[in-house]
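In response to reviewer comment 3 from the previous cycle, which asked for concrete evidence that the modeling workflow produces usable outputs, we include below a single protein chain processed end to end. The sequence was submitted unchanged, and the resulting structure tokens are shown without manual editing.
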Amino acid sequence: MANISNGLAALSVLTGSNAAADFAASTATLETRAQRKARAAFTAPPTTPPWKEKPSAVPESAQVSAIKTMKTIIDKNASTIGPDGKTLPEDVRTTFVTYKALDRLRLLAESAAKPTTGSAERANLQKSFAKGLADLKTYLGSAPSDDVDLAFGKLARQALSVGVASPSSLSAASIPGKGVRDTRDGALAGFKGDEVLKIDLAQLGAKDSLTIDLAKTPQPPTLDTVADAMNAAIKAIPRLDAKGAVVMENGKPVPRWQVSFEPAKNGDKWGMAVKRGGFETISIDQVGGGDAVMVASGLTERVPLAAGVPSGTTPPLNTPADTRILRLDDPAGTMERRTLSTIAAVDRIGTERSAVAAEADLTRKTKEQTVIAATPARGIATDAQGFSYVVGTTAGDLRGNVSDGGDDMILTKVDSEGTVVWQRGLGAAGAAQGAAVTIAPDGGIVVAGTVTGNFDGASADGDLVVTRFDAQGNEAFSSLVRSVGKQTATAVAVGADGMIYVGGKNDSGDAVLARIDAAGKPVQQFRIKTAGTDEVKALAIGADGQLLALTGESGRAMLRRIDKADLTKELASIDLGKADARAIAIDADGAIAVVGAADDNMPGTQVNSRAGGRDGFVARIDAALSSSKVTYLGSTGEDQADSVSFLGDTLYIGGRTTGKLGLERTGDVDGFVARVDAATGAIGKTQQFGTIAAKTQPVHVSAVAGGNSVLGKLGLHRGTLTPTDAVTLEAQTALRAGDEFSIRINGGAIRKVTIGEKDTLTTLANQVRTLIGSRAASVSTPAKGSARALRIDVKPGNELELIAGASGKDALVKLGLDARRIASPAIVDKDAPKVRPGGSFALGLTEALRLDTKTEAGNSLAQIKQALSLSQTAYRSLYWDETKAQAADAPISNGRRPASTAIEQGQLANYQAALTRLSGSFTGF
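The workflow returned the following structure tokens.
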């Protein structure tokens, strides 16, 4: 368009009119072709949005009170009819419902952000606020939509699950060892040179066992000399044909095993790696290796003082942060303590809260951090290969086990060096707490716990649960022991015939016992009832195969021998007096050890004197339950014994103290492991440990013959080296068979996905791929860290809806997925209007928003206000306005606008004719 401003000014002078203004007014009412084309798509009928309605005359305090009594803040019936009496479009209704829900959340947040609001009232407001956020998230996951896509949190074009192990991980040709050395060369620290290693190889029924005597190898041992010795021994085993003859090739025997050990770097350090040619199972151990005591314990640390708290105030103790795996090497001597690893779950919501606080802090002093969920241990047991199993409880996310917010029983397998091999969650829909773990005679792992809520189709009001796993983490069965009233599990034991015994207490004050057969079927229940409050504290199988039950009965400790085939038959008992007995261990010859805490002298022979106050104790009881000999573990502080384990003729006792039993006390409460002579009761060395300003949680011990091998110096561990982790979804995640979710594509039929017992990530992906098809979305299992994940990518122009499963059976949350709609915009034709109705809008909300404090309420209020503004923007996106008109025109390219319309060109021609008459060609003056 020509620049005619100067000419218009001249025309105004000659004619006495304002030509520039006339031109501007004329062109202002004109509509370009692009604008007309774009405006035609905006067909939403006019209506009055909620924010333009007359404000409520009801006081805000009354509105807040009304909101707190609402069943839900989602009012789907509101604003459904327009001023013309017709039903409003789905997009308009969705924006209205969302805005009104957000406005109710705003009122709650504003009330909580007031400095005059008390903590009790904030707690009530938080309860309504949390439910409101959850309701809004659920609503937006399947809200009616045509042109507008409102996302509760962030926009997404794909769904990506939690990472899990895939079947291909079991066939890894190379198994890296842990990096333990800075260099490949040089003498191996901790090796004497006379160690003997034992390697077991197996595949498809074929087995070989070989030993390597390092005394016959070059000295001192190095990574390479040890690898050479092991490889030479493996290659020396020839392959045999069907007749048992050695298979030869080029005049040389063909090795039977395609397995080798090689020094390799893992990260920036060197260790020993294993190479295999197929699916060989490779195990290794040290013959005559040193003993060890494995320890599982946690810490409760103090919370930093809040701003404004007077200096000198002692900070309160927080909940346990994690479980720490320790190992005491040379337990008969120095009891050298090593911290191997930690078991820590992530508090997902707490971590999101940290992110909200960091984002809201304009000073940038608040840093986003990963928040650890309490992960206390309840017991530890070690198998014949040196693998330890730790049972506990957490409400956090632990690897592939995604929490639904409630407690879950967890089982962690660690190798002899403390590295986590696998972790399992029970996956109950309600809550589950771990209580005890034991190794069955056949090597199975049996755990006991308590379940409340939906579990495997049954509703538990607080029932005992027993779950059996194999060494790979496959669940053999989970059995509920149903009873009227609430029960709590505390102990478990397994007989030689596979019979499982679980003990605990009920809400009537009775001690409870149950028998479950080897197939997982409950066969008997029994209650131990006295005049007071009773509880089973620990269970064990005696040398005679009968059940030993340690009970607390109205403050007294009792040990009972019970008929393994009939829990009602008591065969013998011994009264241990007024004491808090907690754990029991059985020696191979039938000797019994019981530990706990006592405030007074206990019955039996007194090996030593009490220190006074509350002391730990170990009572050594003969197999006939006829006598006891008591040793006290006491200091000037408070002492208690939590666990006990036999190793030969020695007892190792785990406990806690506020005094000095070994070293000087370090923390508020220290842990300790004491060595006691099993024959005399004499106390040997005590290893005490603690952390400044922290309280050590119960100390659980498991004494392990051969547990301190040199294999850790090679970057290896005792037992099976090849991958053994089960890869079913039940094993890898909190999912259970029967859990479900549904999928809907482009508003079509709802298709259900149900998890099966043997489903893996691969079979789940195939099932989803079949239901979705290939036109609307693609399904894959890409790498996610060291695992793989289910990924669904929605293709342009399509919409996928993930729908939560039934209450108690929802698979989405356990897969780490949200119930939500995922839309991918269609590819727009180059000639299509540049402005279209609707769009995608992310409200940026999270269920981590809280009203617990004035600061958190203020942060949440800011987030809600931002979401309110976005919901208004989403509504306005459906209606034509001047801003859209300006945006509809094509942008300036290279400083020039594109050709104008015919009307524009006609107007410009008339003005140009007038200007021509004013040009130099006019000579009438």
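The first strand starts at residue 148 and ends at 151. We consider this sufficient to address the reviewer's concern, and the full set will be provided in the supplementary archive.
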